[in-house]
Amino acid sequence: MIAVVARMLAATPVTPDGDEAREWAEQELSDPAYAEAQPTAFDRIARAILDFLGGLFSTDVSGGWGSAFALIAAIAIAALIIVALLVWGLPRARRRASAPVATLFGDADERSADDLRRAAASAADAGRWDEALILRFRALARGLAERGVVSTPPGATVHAFARAAGRVFPSAATDLEAGASAFDDVRYLRRPGSRDDYEHLRRLDEQLIAARPATPVRTGVGG
């Protein structure tokens, strides 16, 4: 039996020829384990970035300038990041900060101040004084929010807004409170509005459009 096994081993070629060796290699490399071990595109990109950054800080510069070169490269990268933030980051942040809140005195309304003024004028032309008065007060509030003068966060009441706006425009404080009362009467107490109430509010809105704030800071609406 041992002699038979020895003859079989002797008959098996230990060193394959060229074609057989290539075939064995192809079969071996076709194993999925080899494909899984290959680096992904993400791995290659990350490695390229790391090699680039490593090259910046390990550049062999004659005369002992390697450390200085690395420091200059670091400062340049930091400067580019700061410039990018100043050019692209801060303007977007300012636009987000100054954008008016979509909710206005308890109701969702994303219209601009000009859109609300046109809607108020249309309602007034049709004799719908309740609607016209409410829309005009909303236009007044939205206009001050768009200018960054008085904020109108969700939950703000008309009287809280009137007090905040009155601090910015002291000469109009009394008229603002009167406009807030008229808004409340129509909106919540269901008292009918009138042409006089609307015209008073329209004139107040136009007055504030042309007025300059007495305080330079943005005023938030309190309770």
Walk me through the structure.
The chain is mainly α and 223 residues long. Among the domains are: 52-98; 103-210, Four Helix Bundle (Hemerythrin (Met), subunit A), CATH 1.20.120. The protein is built from ten helices and two strands, in the order H-H-H-H-H-E-E-H-H-H-H-H. It has helices at residues 2-11, 18-29, 32-37, 41-57, 66-98, 113-125, 129-146, 158-168, 173-187, 195-210; strands at 103-104, 107-108. Strands 1-2 form a two-stranded antiparallel sheet. Helix 7 runs parallel beside helix 10 and helix 9 (173-187) crosses helix 10 (195-210). The longest helix has 33 residues, at 66-98. The radius of gyration is 38 Å and the shape is elongated. The N and C termini lie far apart (103 Å). Mean pLDDT is 75; it is low at 8-14 and 91-98.
Q: Give the integer mean of the pLDDT values.
A: 75
Helix content: 55-70%
DSSP, total strands: 2
The CATH topology name of the domain at 103-210 reads Four Helix Bundle (Hemerythrin (Met), subunit A)
Name the CATH architecture of the domain at 103-210: Up-down Bundle
- Can you count the helices? 10
Structural class, from helix and strand content? mainly alpha
Strand order of the largest sheet: 1-2
Order of helices and strands: HHHHHEEHHHHH
Low-pLDDT segments: 8-14, 91-98
Radius of gyration: 38 Å
> In one word, what is the shape?
elongated
* Main sheet: strands, sense, barrel: 2 strands, antiparallel
Q: What amount of the residues lies in strands? A: under 5%
Question: How far is the first residue's CA from the last residue's CA?
Answer: 103 Å
Just give the CATH class of the domain at 103-210. Mainly Alpha
